[in-house]
Amino acid sequence: MVSSIPKDSQSVSELQEFYRQMVLIRKFEEAAAKAYSVGKIGGFLHLYIGQEAVGVGSIAALTPHDYIVSTYRDHGHALARGLHPNPLMAELFGKATGISKGNGGSMHFFDKNAHFMGGHGIVGGHISLAAGIAFASKYKKEDSVTICFFGEGAANIGSFHEGLNLAAIWKLPVVFICENNHYAMGTPEYRALAVKDVSVRAYAYDMARDHIEGDEVRKVRDHVKVAVDRARRGEGPTLIEVSTYRFRGHSMSDPAKYRTKEELDAYKKKDPLMRARHELELGGIKPEVLDKLEIEIQTQIDEAYAFAESSPEPPLSQLHKYVYAEDK
Amino acid sequence: MAVLTYREALNRAMVEEMEKDPMIYLMGEEVGHYQGAYKVSQGMLDKFGEERVIDTPISENGFAGIGVGSAMVGLRPIIEFMTWNFSLVAIDQIINSAAKMNYMSGGQFPMPIVFRGAGGAGGRLGAQHSQAFESWYAHCPGLKVVCPATPKDAYGLLKSSIRDNNPTIFIESEVLYGSKGEVPEQEYTIPLGLGEIKRKGTDITIVTWSRALSFAEEAAIILEKEGISVEIVDLRSLRPLDENLIYESVKKTNRAIVVEEGWPVAGFGAQISHLIQKNVFSYLDHPVERVTQMDVPMSYAANLERMSLPNANRVADTIREMLR
Ligand SMILES: Cc1ncc(C[n+]2csc(CCOP(=O)(O)OP(=O)(O)O)c2C)c(N)n1
Predict the structure, then answer these.
(1) Is the ipTM reported for this complex over the cut 0.95?
(2) How many CB atoms lie within 10 A of CB B313?
(3) Mutate which of A123, A177, A180, A183 to test ligand 1's pocket (most atoms within 8 Å of Cβ)?
(4) Closest ligand 1 atom, CA of A155?
(5) What distance in Å separates the CA atoms of residue A228 and residue A176, rounded to the nearest whole number?
(6) C-alpha distances in Å from residue A121, one per residue of A312, B32, B193
(7) Is B59 within 8 Å of A320 when comparing Cβ atoms?
(8) Which residues 155-184 in chain A show a CB within 8 A of chain B?
(9) Cβ <8 Å between B33 and A186
(10) Which of the listed residues A149, A250, A252, A267 should we mutate to test ligand 1's pocket, taking the one with most ligand atoms within 8 A of CB?
C-alpha cells in the first residue's frame, strides 16, 4: 500500500480526527448489524462498511452551512456530519428519541439543524431534491453548497439525468458524488452502465468532473473541496465519481453471492481504516494511542445502544401528528 | 394436488406461459442473475436465457416504456417492478402510454403487457416502502387490476393476465410470498373479474382482496365463537369487478364491510361502498363500513406501524358495532 505520510502535526491531528470518525461509523454499524440480527432493528439495514473514507472525506470539505443529501445508506454520512450516535441508534430502534422521532428508520435520517437533508429510499429520486436545495441557495443568494451522495446504480435512472441537466443549465451550487461500489444490489456495474466511468457523463451536461479512488480519506477531502469551492464561486456543479467498495451485502438480507471471495479480500486490503491507521503510525502516532481511541469509541457506541434500548417508543398520539405541518 | 407457496405458483404460471409462447419475456431489476428480489423468477434465467429473462438497470420509467413499445409490435412483456413503490417512477408510462394506447389509436394497438411485482404494507419498511397502491391503478380506465390472495388464485390469475390483450396491473402481496396452499396439478386459468366466496355466512358480508383476506378470515373465526356468521367475498380482481357476487351476498346478509390494506381516502373500498348503496340499498340494515390502513404515511416505529395497519380485531370490533 502506497501511503502518504502526514507531514506536520496539523495534518497528523487532522488525519486522526478522520480516523476517529471512520472508526465511529464502523463500530456504529457493527453494533447496528448485531441489533438487527437479534430483531431490535426492523426493516432494511444497508451498511456503509468499507466506504467510510468517502463520506468522511467529502463532508470534511463542507462548512456547517452546506447541505447533505443522502440515500438509504445514510448512517455514515450522518455520523460524518457530526450527528450524535445516540439519536441515530435510537432511530434504528424506532424510538421517540430517534433523529426522525422513530418515523424514519434506517433509510430516513433527517436533521434540519445540521442541514442533513435526509436519507431517501427511492434510488436516484433524491438527486433532483439536491438540485432543488441548491436552487434555493442560489435564489436566496446564500453561499451554501449542497452535496448529494448516490451509487453508480442511481446514475442510470431518469432523475439523475434530469437533476444533472437542471443543475448544469442553472449553474447550481451542487456537487454530485457517485459512490461507485461497483454493485447495485446484485447487479455489477458492467451489466448496468453502457460507459463504465460514471464521471464522464458530466460531459453530456457540460459539467466539471473528477474521478478518484475512495480509500484515502484526505485525498477525497481535497478533491471534493475543489468542487465545493467551484460551486461556491458560482461556477456550477461537479460530478465526482469515487471508487469504493462495500464489504457487506447490499443490505442485511443479502448474502452477496454474486461476487467472489477473492474480490472481497482484494478490496479488504484497501480498507480505508487500515490505511489511515497505517499512515498515522508512519506519522508518529503510537499504536497504543489508536487502540485507546478505538476503545473510547466502542464505549460511546455501547452508550448509544443502551440509550436506544432504554428510550421509550413514540407516544401513540404521534400516529396522526406530522402528517401536515402545524400552524404557527 | 400440490402444495405450493404463493411465489412458486407465480413462478409456475410464468414458466408455463413462456414455454408456450416465445413472444413472452420477463424484464425487470434483478429478475435474472439475482433470481428475483423476492425470488419469484427463481430458475427462469437458466431455463429461458438472457434474451427472455432480462435484467435492467434501475430505470423503471425506461424499462416500462420498452415494454409498452415492444407490446405495440407483437411482444407480450411481463414487466416486474421490484415493488410497486417504485412503479410510481414509471406511472407515466403505465397510465399515459399503456392504459390509453388502444383507445387513442382507435383499436389499432392492443396492449398485451403485464406489470407485476410485490405490493402491500408492513414489515417495518417505513413510509416509502410500505403502501398498497391498487386503488391508484384501479382508478384508470384501460387497465386491469388483479390482486390474488392465495397460491391457487395467483397461478390461475397470472396466466389469465399474461394471455389478456390488455395492460394488467398484477399486484402480489409481499407478505404472502412464502404462504402455502393447494394448487391443482392440472393447468387452469381463473378469468379476470371473477370473485370467490371464501367463506359462507349469513350475518354480514366482508368484501376484501389480497392480504386483507387474512384479516377477514381471522375476524370471522373470532366472531363465530360469539355466534356471528360471516360471509367473505374475495374479489381477486378490482378491474373488472365481480359486482354481482357482492350484491348477491349482501342481499343474503343485509350488511357489508370492506377490508383493505390501502388508505381510506378515495380508496377502492369507497367505490364498493358506493356501488352497494346504489344497487342494493333496500337490503341494507346498516351503512356500509370500511376497515383500512390509517390515513397517514407509514411510521417505522413498531407500535405505530401495528396501529396503522388493519387487523382482525379492528374488523371484529367494527362488525360487533354494526350488529348491535
Ligand atoms: C427507484 C428504485 N428502484 C429500485 C429500488 C430497490 N433498490 C434499493 S437500493 C438498490 C441498489 C442501488 O445501488 P446503487 O445506486 O449503486 O447504490 P448502493 O446501494 O450500491 O450504495 C435497489 C435496486 C429502489 N429503492 N428505488
Answers:
(1) no
(2) 13
(3) A123
(4) 15
(5) 10
(6) 26, 23, 35
(7) no
(8) 156-159, 184
(9) yes
(10) A250
Name residues whose C-beta falls within 8 Å of residue A310's C-beta, 6 or more positions apart in sequence. Answer: none
Position of cell 445514510?
Answer: A74
CA A79 to mean position of chain CA atoms: 8
- What is d(CA B220, CA B312) in angstroms, rounded to the nearest whole number? 8
Contact A314 B295 (CB under 8 A): no
> How near does any CA of chain A get to the CA of B226, in Å?
30
- Cβ neighbour number for residue A95 with a 10 Å cutoff: 22
CA A41 to ligand 1 center in whole angstroms: 20
For an interface test with A, give the residue of B299, B305, B308 to mutate (most A CBs within 10 A): B299
Per DSSP, the three-state class of B1 is coil
pLDDT in single tens digits along all 324 residues of chain B: 899 999 999 999 999 999 999 999 999 999 999 999 999 999 999 999 999 999 999 999 999 999 999 999 899 999 999 999 999 999 999 999 999 999 999 889 999 999 999 999 989 999 999 999 999 999 999 999 999 999 999 999 999 999 999 999 999 999 999 999 999 999 999 999 999 999 999 999 999 999 999 999 999 999 999 999 999 999 999 999 999 999 999 999 999 999 999 999 999 999 999 999 999 999 999 999 999 999 999 999 999 999 999 999 999 999 999 999
CB A69 within 8 A of CB A117: yes
Residue with cell 411485482: B117
Q: Of the candidates B48, B150, B140, which has an alpha carbon nearest to the alpha carbon of residue B95?
A: B140
Asked if the Cβ–Cβ distance from A319 to B58 is below 8 Å, we say no
